[in-house]
Amino acid sequence: MHARLLLRLLALVVFGVIGTAPILARSAAQPVALVLIPGAGGIHPRDFLVASQPIFQSAGLETALTTSAGQAASLIAQYKAQGMRVVLVGMSLGAVTAAQAVASGAQPDGVVFAAGGLLPPGTPNGSVVETLGDPSRLPRTLVLHHRGDQCVLTPPEAVPEFIRWSRGRARVAWITGGGGFGPPCRPNTPHTFEGRTQAAAGAIVQFARGSR
User: How do 62-65 and 110-114 pair as beta strands?
Assistant: First the structure.
């Protein structure tokens, strides 16, 4: 009798522990979504974020593309309602659109400004600082920038000043190397991380996985 009782208790302990382990593993892996806002060319195959979608998806991140600040805010709310962590990513002019979404009240868990127009106020089409107005509006932030970016609207020299302005909310991931030729603010240049797509997209993936 005692032997059978001990066996039953042992079975409950073993199967209870084994049965709950997968549940704990699933709860620890919160799914992540990226809301992507391309640059001035819109949702075009040559845009860095559009071209990087397969990289993001192969890393297990869900993605959605939009060119609207309002729709970006709506997508963020929808993903968060599903229990997902959400990172908003704006490329070039899309960085200003991303800032508009945040300024309007969108609450992503993180934001990435890739080759964005950070400074100064009065820049054509606006700037991230001018749009946000106050660094307290920033969630955890990554500035993704190429050191060789020659676009006059997105100079690398603006990055350190933006990092200071953010008051500790932003950090930078610098991209170097690659190549390409063409007008400095267009595709096929350092501004769009030509030849370094994998490294630039990888920095976004790493940031998204670590966002809290």
Answer: unpaired
